[in-house]
Amino acid sequence: MTNSLASVFVDRIRAVVGHQSEPIGLHVPEIGELEKKYINECLDSTFVSSVGSFIPKLEERMQEITGARHAVAVSNGTVGLQVAMFLAGGQPGDEVIIPTLSFIATANAVSHAGAHVFFVDSEESTLGMSPVALRAALESFVRKGSALVNPATGRRIAAIVPMHTLGHPVDIAAIVAIANEFDVPVVEDAAESLGSFVGEQHTGTFGLTSMISFNGNKIVTTGGGGVILTNDEVLGKRAKHLTTTAKLVHKWEFEHDEIAWNYRMPNLNAALGMAQLDKYPRFLEQKRRLAGKYAEAFAGLEGLSFVVEPAGTTSNYWLCSVRLDEPSLALRDELMTAAHEAGLLVRPMWNLLHQQRMYSGASRGDVSVATDLHASLICLPSTPALAEAV
Ligand SMILES: Cc1ncc(COP(=O)(O)O)c(C=O)c1O
Questions:
Q1: Which pTM does this prediction carry?
Q2: Residue 1 pLDDT > 80, yes or no?
Q3: What does each C-alpha distance from 200 to 67, 197, 211 come to in angstroms?
Q4: Is the pLDDT of residue 371 over 50?
């Protein structure tokens, strides 16, 4: 029975992505002549580092795409999230609420900011932070003056960091409403959700600050890189200042007014990113078309189903995925093994953060939905060009 589900799983993926002699990767960047042209332009200019014309162009383009008033390009999403949390007021010793079902960087960014994580559960319909679990956590905390404090640790709750899982928008409106009630800022981990909207509003523009990643496996890549987004003018200026060593503008003097970071995205990476952003509307269209093909291929199958965007949202389908009807790590791994043997490099979800050794002692609420999701989701090959494979 399970053997046959594994072979049907492989057949249905094949029906969408076709047959190739090489293994089919999870998400492969498309690098062509335009990328080479812009990178060569950048090399010819000699401005390959933290100054150059591609960086502000990339920031402007990201403002246009997302509608955010400020976009600040940084060297990767992890440091972008760290700074986004710092800008929202996170201080060493604070506690930050994050979903346990996330990539390690969400937790690491908190740790790099000197803060501690508090893990909450996910919800089935979005795969992201559960507003119910969030409220339960916040209600277990106590108010001390203007601060909300976790009585178990004595730490101040500095921020709530929901994440848009696999590109599917989390219930950000509910999360922001609850956060406002408890007066805690929201910092969105929008690493995976470039091109994902709630209604007409782009993800990453609901929180006080946010971050989008341009890692090599994302819908648009700069090699390594990311942007911090905010609508707050003061924070936008501060994001740029803090990520460029807090240097005061002067023709030659090296005067810096605080201890800051060298986190600026290099112009060379921004050149690559601009070529990718020129292609981004096509990438997005292809990814949604690919998702439609998978949805059709997996329709009516008993045992698993294709994961669709939450109601009222438009997902970029960064990673298309299927979900087992019944969570089972054994069955999940059986399907994954069959796919890998067929040259289809599917992937599981990340191991839950509260089970990673560095975070096993961290505070948390109930995480049973995340545990089930971890044991039932499989990510499918999602390279945009696969939309044209068959
Ligand atoms: C959810 C999430 N958060 C943070 C990051 C970190 O981004 P980066 O790899 O650009 O540092 C990633 C992806 O890489 C991610 O998927």
A1: 0.97
A2: no
A3: 10, 6, 19
A4: yes
Ligand 1 centroid – CA 223 distance (Å):
13
Q: What's the gap in Å between 107 CA and the centre of ligand 1?
A: 10
CA of 65 relative to ligand 1 center, distance in Å: 19
Q: Is residue 20 pLDDT above 70, yes or no?
A: yes
Q: DSSP characters for 117-162?
A: EEEE-B-TTTSSB-HHHHHHHHHTSEEETTEEEETTTTEEEEEE--
Mutate to test the pocket of ligand 1, among 103, 111, 164 (most ligand atoms within 8 A of CB): 103
From its phi and psi, is residue 277 left (phi > 0), alpha (psi between -120 and 50) or beta?
A: alpha
**Ligand 1, residues at Cβ distance < 6 Å:** 76-78, 81, 102-103, 105-106, 163, 189, 191-192, 213, 215, 226
Q: Are 13 and 345 in contact (CB under 8 A)?
A: no
Please state, in angstroms and rounded to a whole number, the distance separating the CA atoms of residues 133 and 105. Answer: 21
